[in-house]
Please model this.
Amino acid sequence: MKKIIGYLLLLLLVSFQGFSQTKFKGVVKDDKEKLSLFGALVTITAEGTTAVDQATVDFDGTFSLTTTKTYGTVEVSMNGFISKSFPFYGKGDESTIDLGIIYLEENTVTQRDIIVTTSSIDVIKDRKTPISSSTMRNYEMREKVSNKDFIELTSHMPGVYTSRVGGGFGDTRMNVRGFEQNNISPMIDGIPVYDLEAGIVDWANIASMNDVASSIQLQRGLGASKLVNSSVAGTFNMILRDANYDKGGFLYNATGNNGYRKFVGSYATGLLKSGFSANVLLSATSGDGYVTATNFEAYSYYLALGYKKGKHDFQFKVFGSPQWHNQRVSDISLATYIERGNGVDEPNYKYNRDWGYLDNEQYATKVNFGHKPLGIFQWDINFTDKTQLSAKLYGSKGTSGSTNFSGGILGFSAAQLTNDEGQIDLDFIQQYTSNTYTTNPSSVYFRDPNYVDGNGNNLYINSPFAGAFTDANGNVTGYSYDTGVTLLSEITNQTFYGGILNLSSQLTNNLKLNYGLDARKTVYNKTRIVNDLFGASGYSIDFYDALNSGPSGSWYSMYTNNTALPEPILDFTKKNLGATPVDYNYDAKIAYLGSYAQIEYDIWKLNFLAQGGFNRQFIQRVDYSLIEDSSNTTNELPMDGYNAKFGVNFNVTSKHNIWANAGFVSRPPVFVTVYSGLNNDINPNYRNEKFKSIEVGYGFRSRSVSLNISAYSSDHKDAETPYYTPELGNFGTTSGINRVNRGIELDVTAAPIRKLILNGTLSVGEWKYSSNAIFQDLRPDTSGNLLDPSILLIDGQKIGGAPQLMASLGAEYEFFKNFRLGSNIKYSDRMYSSPALERYDPVFYGDVFAFKSPVRLPSFAVTDAFASYRFRVNVTNFIDLRLNVDNILNRKYISESNTSYQADSVDPSTYDSSAPSNATFRDNGNLYKGLATSNNAFFGLGRTWNFTVRYEF
Model:
């Protein structure tokens, strides 16, 4: 009888649960930035049943979940955060329980997933996507960027080396796993911003990205992008803040060494009840530069507008960063640094030759400038919770450029005309060019007028040409040693637009398919303009015609005196800064169409990934005449590319996982490799680059330790590098560059006690060239034939440009609530110089002066430190104070070199071809830290500091 009564009571309880409901609602945010945690999972469980109720947190951080359970536990969880649980006892009266704002504490040792709402942006999912990656959030970026270039934020990621090169603002270059940055695919919101014309990555024109990005993620190796992009070393994904970013704003002010100043203001409306949202940011940055005369000025703006209604989500974003910055780009030898230092053994590592004084005013001769805004329109349609169509349109229009000298005086280039202080003697250049240096006609510095206009006025016309004039048969018709010196800008007027269409469908609980199309049209208009004539009457427009125009001087009638100074171009539609094109003017046109498919399959503890794609490019060159309204257009040249990658992840336990991936890429050459030189001639040797990669990895996750280790092997074949000069363009190419890059990477984060965080990385590489290469001069001889190619002896040589051994160790401790101190040290070794491969030609340079092997540069360690404090003004307002000191020990180190003079090789300064033997650098005592002082080098920056105040409201 008792059993029957028990069964009846149990049945009554189950029935009560089945017909009563309790509703939960709340808001989930992170405890650090107070941002909504879209995608967090809310789960209700109860003892005695395996059934669970779940809901996902929405865009604005809210959730609503109804359950029939009368008691149990509500758990809020998200990868990368410490879960929170709440016991509950329902009243059974259809009541609603408001849990309020639930703040999740970030798990400091676990990298949390980036949450994106659109399928057109590809990110790594921890313990699922079989690709190695490193992620940095916005708050980490603003804390660590100091007054560095934002791309330097990646320098503590495994396998990454960054160098400030000459030290100018935005001039930092990035190297991943031994590959230069032209093998990396930079993407903004899933849109490739890789330069298809020259293969370069222009960080300067997105230098304020750390202000507007919600996160950045470096995906090493094959990367996670579905697009058939240019990535062979990695994909660098910069994800912009959406319009529906949480409501609030901030004001940010920073000051630092060498006059560094930065101000940022931002505000977001959050997602309004009407479905609209907006996010706006403005910033201004300026400074004098750490290196002498590397002043800079940059601005940025960002506007995001959004509308979300039902199944539709619209996002419109505009980002731009007009800037100018003075540079140090000229090659400087170690001997010159020492000469400008104490003259014995202490170099002046801030020395910069690329400036001087003109009329007692500082005058920079190497200036980079530009403004290339990017606009994005995105429309996501969520047909169901399993199917989404994402359509993205984008476009950019703007101008960028950099200045260079043209011409010379009495056989000397402008860079050789320096004063006693080692700066370019601009006063002399102006006096000579305008013929005001002396009135004595017999003086060597007297300049003869080289053109008489229709009114009988004597004019001084500058040009880039110095040497012999020849006719069509190669006969000399005259000489010119009197070109004068002109400051010109090499200009790129860029226009591109395109679209991405991606269909994402969860076909079953285990199978997900993405399919898409990617189209883009790009036009790069390339030319030169005149910045400064230095007192001359004008500048010859087209020096190519001068070579075949008959008597010297007759062609100077085609000249311009229309000049424009480099500036931060606020009007991005202002082509060529309003100046007249000179020397050359051509369009590089690239039309691109690609398609791809990606399959993800999850079963048991296994996650499979397969992706493949194909693209076709049509490239075309249009050469414009500078002296008449005509042009010469080539036919469209089709080129195909494709890729495929496969991967698998196995979650052995809740803490351990192993993964592997493999793939291949066939990448078409960039435009300047196909159309070499400043004409429509096609390089007969161009071909696709081939890349194969295999990688395996292991991961460990616990509450106090996160560890990743991976091993990779990459084979890169048939790479080609154009050989460039401003006057001749890409007149030759080095082809058949084959390389093998292998290595191991480790990163670990640990929190042995609550307030202490430790992190470390280790990267060990073995990067070598796997064959000799070929240099082909593309200038025909007098018979119209190409010269025989040169063999470059690089087989087995180390690949330079980045350390093949890097290790870092960092610590951060919270001494009291919200006050933190931390430091990080990075050690670099086994770094080699990276000279132009053409210098390995023993025929052209001779056995004595041809490079034999790269120089191993001295190892170095750099220590950074910080202190930060955050205090609450009121419930919603905070103030953050932070002091960053980089290279706190002021370590002087060589960050890169582009020459390879060995200590025991012949010293050119004392070379005598008739002598039976010649002294080496070591014999002559011309060494600095074991390096021959004829080697060019750039030094890393010494101690720098930055103090910031940030007010959140």
